[in-house]
Amino acid sequence: MKKLFVLTLAALLVTTCIAQAATTGEQRAAPQDGTGARADPDAKAAKAAATARYKRIRAKAHRNAARAKANARAMQVAGDSK
Questions:
Q1: Per-domain boundaries in the chain
Q2: What's the burial of 77, exposed, middle or buried (CB within 10 Å: 0-12/13-18/19+)?
Q3: Which residues pair with 32 in a beta bridge?
């Protein structure tokens, strides 16, 4: 049982070291351009998609706020006319 534990721990350590080396290698291999995003085209596409999604969400929130304001104004006018 103790031998199995030691082997498992050693395998985990080796796996972690390999994963760490691969990660740092990828970070060195992907230089940054001036925008703060990696020069990787997939990263640029992901950033553009996130920006577009954020803009859509903000636009929807503004539309909803304007609709709520118009509805409140209409209800106020309807209440005044009674």
A1: 2-25+41-81
A2: exposed
A3: 38
Amino acid at site 48: A
Residue 54 near residue 47, CB atoms below 8 Å: no
pTM (2 d.p.): 0.43
Q: Are 70 and 80 in contact (CB under 8 A)?
A: no
Single-letter amino acid code for the residue at 2: K
* Alpha-carbon distance values, 45 to 1, 34, 51 (Å): 49, 16, 10
Contact 45, 53 (CB under 8 A): no
- AA identity, residue 35: T
Q: What pLDDT score was predicted for residue 47?
A: 92
Positive or negative: CA dihedral 45, 51, 52, 54:
positive
Query: What is the mean pLDDT, run by run of 10 residues, along the chain of 82 residues?
Result: 72 68 54 59 89 96 96 88 59
